[in-house]
Amino acid sequence: MSTVLQLASTGLLQGLLYSLIGIGLYLVFTVMRVVNFAHGYFVLIGMYGVLSLGPKGFLPFLGAIVVAAAGGALVGYLVQRFLLESGLAKGGHSQLVITLSLGIAIQYLFQVLHPEPFETIPNPYPFEAFTSSGVTISAPRMAAGALSLVLVLLVSFLVYRTRIGTIIRGCSESLNGAIHVGINVRRVYRLTFALGCGLAAIAGGLLLPIQPVSPALGLELTIKAFIVVVIGGAGSLWGTVAAGVLLGLAEALGSLYAPGTFATALVYGLFFLVILVRPQGLVVRAAARITPRKSLTKVGVG
Amino acid sequence: MTTLEVRGLTVKRGRSEVLHQVDLVVREGECVCLVGSNGAGKTSLIEGVLGLLPAKATTLSFLGRSLLGVRPWDRVRRGLVVVPQNRDLFSGMTVEENLRLGAVAVGDRVAADAVLEEIYELFPRLAERAAQLAGTLSGGERSMLAIGRGLMSRPKMLVFDEPSLGLAPLVVTSIMRTIAEINERGTTVLLVEQNVHQAFALASRAYVLENGVIAGEGPTGELADSELMRRGYLGSAATGGVVKA
Q1: Cβ-defined contact of A181 to B76 (cutoff 8 Å)
Q2: How many CB pairs under 8 A join A and B?
């Protein structure tokens, strides 16, 4: 019993981190209809960012995360400004090719900068593991889960309760409608992409003391973020959050029934099943489903 | 004073030129209509003026300032608001959220509440449906919402793109009456319509668009009696003449 409890708590906390990674991808996808295949690599930017700043202690660690997040957001802004905007003008599947290549480029960049795999930092938090009723949770894992939850709540507040959030949702509902009410959609796109990448980088910083970083991790994280968004459904941010937690739980509890790598395969198989049974995802709005988006260029502003 | 001045406007849709050297002027406080059959280029004209389609013009100015090179959303912020043909509502958001988004980028936030009240007075139906998702509204209600959203920023000029499209005759009459009221309250109106009778009843001047060129213009009273209108738009009279002869 305590094993199940142990795995469930670990899975839940890991899942919250997946939720945080997922909402960045969700925002970019629902607002811009762009699937950012480099999303997991922005998590890498956060991980390597914090690693290379080498923070000693809790406050420097938080500072390093802020710096890494700002860096990730800036890279995201520049990618949208200089690669995706002009790429969208060319139509076709350019955004897919651009984000995929960008991810690979980031991976090789880090392979050159950090040839040593599995680098990590020691526990930066001012407390050690928690133990309660036979369940032990390490400090970084506890803190990463809690901070992810706080950030997810902050983002949902931003999206659903603020003026800028209303503008973001407006752009996601109807690009033309947004233009007709005078919203600078180009700026909203840039900021949304920056926000999504910044969130991914924060998640990377939180992940670093838990999971040693290697350049190859980017692809795995991209796929996980992708799964979370698809399973969550396009209807609401909360679907993505729930799917993140589910993925974490499934991974952790899967290891009960299957050894190591096979457990991972089992998890992906499970999600494959979910997609077959419920292809629209967990949360879908009744009134509006995600419709294919005309690119900015097709409405003449690209 | 001239509100909208268009001279030598040429608009391209993809590779083909769909509007050729169009001149059109709307003065302050006027209600002008632009009529033409399907595919004449009415929507292209609007999209060219708003900057949604690539357009060239010798003059394209709004309230005396050139719009050339100005982004579509900035044209809206200057007070040139379009109520689009397919409404372009925020379907997954409530009626009230849609209306508030109408002023989010343009109007000042304090005034928004007052304007919202005015719009609910103009369209009591929207007040009843304030908390309903826009995607669940009927065609007439969607049209009202699109107009209400356009009014939220207190525009200097409203351009209506086929407001009667797909609506029942009774609803069309009520929408047209509302447009007249909006104009009477001081907003300059350009009404783009296929429904010539309704449009001429409302507007003081009209432009007739045929195959991407202006085929005629003038006060609606005179234009209604002209050979051009009889031939192409006002039904039996044109062919009727030939048949009788």
Answers
A1: yes
A2: 100
Report the CATH number that the domain containing residue A213 is assigned in CATH: 1.10.3470
Q: Which residues of A touch B (CB under 8 A)?
A: 163, 166-167, 169-170, 173-174, 176-186, 285-288, 299-301
Nearest residue to A171 via CA among A193, A201, A145: A193
Q: Kindly give, in sequence order, each residue whose CB lies less than 8 Å from that of residue B198, ignoring residues fewer than 6 positions away.
A: B164, B172, B173, B176
Torsion of CA B219, B222, B227, B232, to 10 degrees: 50
* Residue recorded with tokens 């993140």: A244
pLDDT for residue B245: 30
Positions in chain B short of pLDDT 70 = 107, 232-245
Render pLDDT for A221-280 as a digit per residue (tens, 0 to 9): 999 999 999 989 877 899 999 999 999 999 888 888 877 778 778 878 878 888 888 888
- Residue A171's CB is within 10 A of a number of other CB atoms, namely 23
Structural element, H or E, at residue B59: strand B59-62
Rounded distance between C-alpha atoms, residue A20 and residue A229, angstroms: 11
- Reported as half-sphere exposure (CB side, CA atoms, 13 A), residue B193 has a value of 24
* Domain region containing A285: 2-299
Ramachandran quadrant class, B20 (left: phi over 0; alpha: psi -120 to 50; beta: rest): beta
CB spacing of A174 vs B88 below 8 angstroms: yes
**Is this structure's pTM higher than 0.80?**
yes
- CA gap B121, B163 in Å, rounded: 20
Rounded distance between C-alpha atoms, residue B107 and residue B77, angstroms = 9
Identify the residue whose tokens are 């392979």. A111
Q: What percent of chain A has pLDDT over 90?
A: 70
- Output the six-digit token pair for B232: 């192409």
Question: Rounded to an integer, what is the distance from CA A275 to the centroid of its chain?
Answer: 20
Number of structural domains, chain A?
1
> Looking at CA atoms only, how far is residue B103 from chain A in angstroms?
7
Is B145 strand, coil or helix? helix
> Contact at 8 Å (CB) between B100 and B116?
yes
DSSP B28: T
Q: d(Cα A300, Cα A302) in Å, to the nearest integer? A: 6
Residue A301 phi/psi, 5-degree rounding, is -120, 5
Whether ipTM tops 0.90, in short, is: yes
Q: Is A34 helix (H, G, I), strand (E, B) or coil?
A: coil
* Three-state secondary structure call for residue B216: strand
pLDDT band at A293 (very low <50, low <70, confident <90, very high): low
Residue B104 backbone dihedrals phi, psi, to 5 degrees: -65, -35
Supply the pLDDT for residue A275: 83
pLDDT in tens, B153-212: 999 999 999 999 989 999 999 999 999 999 999 999 999 998 898 999 999 999 999 999
How far is residue A26's CA from residue A29's CA, in Å, rounded to a whole number? 5
**Which segments of chain A does DSSP mark as H helices, in order?**
2-32, 39-53, 58-78, 85-90, 94-113, 139-161, 163-173, 175-180, 185-207, 217-232, 237-257, 260-277
> Which of A31, A159, A175, A179 is most worth mutating to test chain B (most B CB atoms within 10 A of its CB)?
A179
